[in-house]
């Protein structure tokens, strides 16, 4: 993660402020920064999204390709995640420096999607045991301003919402040879339901209280954080302690309660904004990277 | 590695025949959800490692070795600001490198050791759970290497590896605030899902969610937490964490005895 140099006085200032539920930029402990989400920014993908959360900038592209189903699950497609920490984000990521963080984030994404209810994988099956859709979700970290996991999970959810997978038909000849036919209409596609796709809420322990959506400076003051992946219905799909400190059992229980509250609000606002963007239609003005 | 097609005439990828067999109807037997399997632990068994530990819990067998402290690689890092607890500056703190490996014959299918993926994730989980317990400020510019080898996976492998790694660190004489005890849990699906403590491999395969908790028993601080799956609402996970912490406390006396025995053995073997 990008590191920022903080003096002792600044750390004390942040910690004391958090005790009073007042953070450096005036937010409360459970408030997010202003989030900007835009979908359909990259034209070569099946779905894409860009999320800007304060100084954190994430770009996610989803490409749907045909592949063979896994042996243990012959009737389902699957998702493959790849996270690339670009050297633009911070000079520490130059060369292979960002690989460790990238694999950590990718492994966390695999973990949060590793259950039956997040994405309906059986809708990705074309013919059992032979063909299925594989969704390659590629995450690009453009700028690192704290709270990476939350921003990435919001971007992945928005990109999956935006994904359009073309409809295919499997035609069988008399000899039994199978042929795959793509539909002629480019707008004839299947959409994924992202009702149950979880979002990650990271709670950083600062002093005796915990904060949601920590900036880089606040992350430098926190020794331990709890990462909870929660769906819109409040179902938790993943829980992980991050950082080199330890957590009190009571604060873990408090953090889990917070994450449920915060997660519900986050999901509601994300759903409403995604539906609103979609209702603007294909003629909406695209902001992209220039706004 | 590409197969040698001239000499070995066979498919590039092979699978065990069990995958194609009819589904086994072996369901895990009902049992007391709070039972812990009997644990056998022994520290100080490898001659080449600074500290080592072997832990057996049911069918899970883990061997862990610690080496160091030796000079940290990674070159110079300028003196950074002091840590939040007033400890040694970040650049002077020691480093803990953890490596988790599964033996290729540890599971039902043979798995060639892969570079990334699950083993990297579990190695990182080990590091995050052990760091709160080790006094890294006392090993400036040094690194400690912990490597855990899973010989047989009989359920709750990460928890066993955590406990074995903490025992090995203690056996190596590394300064620690407290031991770290790990405990695994899994959620048995069904009409009334219950969390089972210390699951066997069969129970883990049939589970809807899994959780590993690491606790420092004397300080009563949670050092590590890793869980995933369809665990339901936060209340269900809270119950699971409580059950796991209780299991860790119950396991602690066994580990204390193991360390005492190892110290006695070392004292008896040393030339007086």
Entry summary:
Chain A is of the alpha+beta class. Chain A has helices at residues 8-19, 99-112, 148-162, 216-221, 249-279, and strands at residues 35-39, 47-53, 56-67, 78-85, 125-127, 131-143, 164-166, 168-172, 178-182, 189-191, 199-206, 209-212, 224-230, 236-243. In chain A, β2 (47-53) and β3 (56-67) form a beta hairpin.
Summarize the helices and strands and which ones pair or pack.
The complex is a heterodimer of chains A (291) and B (272).
Chain A: H1 8-19, E1 35-39, E2 47-53, E3 56-67, E4 78-85, H2 99-112, E5 125-127, E6 131-143, H3 148-162, E7 164-166, E8 168-172, E9 178-182, E10 189-191, E11 199-206, E12 209-212, H4 216-221, E13 224-230, E14 236-243, H5 249-279
Parallel strand pairs in A: 4-6
Antiparallel strand pairs in A: 1-2, 2-3, 3-6, 5-6, 7-10, 8-9, 11-12, 11-13, 13-14
Chain B: E1 39-43, E2 51-57, E3 60-71, E4 95-102, H1 118-130, E5 142-152, H2 157-171, E6 181-188, E7 194-197, H3 201-205, E8 209-216, E9 221-229, H4 234-269
Parallel strand pairs in B: 4-5
Antiparallel strand pairs in B: 1-2, 2-3, 3-5, 6-7, 6-8, 8-9
Helix pairs in contact in B: 1-2
Tell me about this structure.
Chain B: Pfam families: RNase_PH. Chain B: Belongs to the RNase PH family. The complex is a heterodimer of chains A (about 290) and B (about 270). The model of chain A has no long low-confidence stretch (mean pLDDT about 90). Chain A has a single domain, classed as 2-Layer Sandwich (Ribosomal Protein S5, domain 2), CATH 3.30.230. Chain A is of the alpha+beta class. Helix content of chain A is about 25%, strand content about 30%. In chain A, strands 1, 2, 3, 4, 5 and 6 form a 6-stranded mixed sheet that branches. Chain A is elongated. By secondary structure, chain B is an alpha+beta fold. Chain B has a single domain, classed as Ribosomal Protein S5, domain 2, CATH 3.30.230.70. Helices cover about 25% and strands about 25% of the residues of chain B. Chain B is built from 4 helices and 9 strands, in the order ββββαβαββαββα. In chain B, the strands form 2 sheets. Chain B has a 5-stranded mixed sheet with strand order 1-2-3-5-4. Chain B is globular. The chains are: A alpha+beta (about 290), B alpha+beta (about 270). At the A-B interface, helix 1, helix 2, strand 13, strand 14 and helix 5 of A face helix 1, strand 8, strand 9 and helix 4 of B.
């Amino acid at each position: 993660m990008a590191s920022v140099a903080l003096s002792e006085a600044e750390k004390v200032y942040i910690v004391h402020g958090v005790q009073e539920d007042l953070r450096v930029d005036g937010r409360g402990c459970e408030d997010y920064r202003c989030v900007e989400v835009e979908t359909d920014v990259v034209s070569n993908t099946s779905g894409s999204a860009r999320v800007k959360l304060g100084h954190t900038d994430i770009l996610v592209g989803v490409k749907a390709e045909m592949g063979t189903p896994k042996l243990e699950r012959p009737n389902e497609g699957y998702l493959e995640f790849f996270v690339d920490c670009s050297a633009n984000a911070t000079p520490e990521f130059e060369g292979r420096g960002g690989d460790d963080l990238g694999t950590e984030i990718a492994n966390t994404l695999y973990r949060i999607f590793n259950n039956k209810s997040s994405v309906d994988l059986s809708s990705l099956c074309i013919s059992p045991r032979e063909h299925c859709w594989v969704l390659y979700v590629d995450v690009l970290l453009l700028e690192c301003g704290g709270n990476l996991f939350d921003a990435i999970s919001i971007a992945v959810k928005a990109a999956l919402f935006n994904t359009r997978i073309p409809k295919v038909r499997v035609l069988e000849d008399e000899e039994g040879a199978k042929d795959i036919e793509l539909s002629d209409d480019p707008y004839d596609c299947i959409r994924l339901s992202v009702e149950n796709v979880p979002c990650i809420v990271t709670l950083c322990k600062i002093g005796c209280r915990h904060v949601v959506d920590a900036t880089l400076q606040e992350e430098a003051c926190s020794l331990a954080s709890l990462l909870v992946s929660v769906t819109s219905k409040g179902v938790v799909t993943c829980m992980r302690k991050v950082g080199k400190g330890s957590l009190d059992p009571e604060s873990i229980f408090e953090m889990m309660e917070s994450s449920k509250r915060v997660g519900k609000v986050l999901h509601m606002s994300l759903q409403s904004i995604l539906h609103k963007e979609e209702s603007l239609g294909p003629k909406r003005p695209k902001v992209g990277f220039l706004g | 590695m590409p197969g040698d097609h001239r000499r070995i005439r066979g498919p590039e990828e092979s699978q065990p025949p069990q995958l194609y067999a009819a589904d086994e109807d072996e369901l895990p037997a009902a049992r007391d959800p709070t039972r812990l399997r009997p644990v056998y632990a022994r520290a100080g068994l490898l001659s080449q490692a600074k500290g080592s530990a072997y832990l057996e819990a049911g069918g899970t067998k883990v061997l862990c070795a610690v080496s160091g402290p030796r000079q940290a690689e990674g070159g110079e890092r300028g003196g950074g600001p002091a840590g939040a607890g007033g400890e040694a500056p970040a650049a002077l703190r020691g480093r803990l490198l953890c490596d988790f490996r599964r033996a290729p014959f540890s599971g039902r299918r043979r798995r060639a050791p892969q570079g990334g993926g699950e083993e990297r994730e579990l190695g990182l989980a080990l590091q995050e759970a052990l760091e709160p317990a080790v006094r890294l400020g006392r090993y400036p510019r040094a690194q400690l290497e912990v490597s855990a080898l899973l010989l047989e996976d009989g359920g709750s492998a990460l928890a066993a590896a955590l406990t074995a790694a903490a025992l090995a660190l203690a056996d190596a004489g590394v300064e620690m605030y407290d031991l770290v005890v790990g405990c695994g849990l899994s959620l048995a699906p069904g009409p009334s899902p219950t969390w089972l403590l210390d699951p066997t491999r069969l129970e883990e395969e049939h589970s809807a969610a899994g959780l590993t908790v690491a606790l420092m028993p004397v300080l009563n601080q949670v050092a590590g937490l890793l869980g995933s799956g369809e665990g339901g609402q936060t209340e269900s996970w809270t119950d699971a964490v409580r059950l796991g912490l209780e299991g860790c406390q119950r396991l602690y006396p066994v580990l204390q005895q193991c360390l005492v025995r190892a110290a006695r053995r070392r004292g008896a073997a040393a030339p007086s």
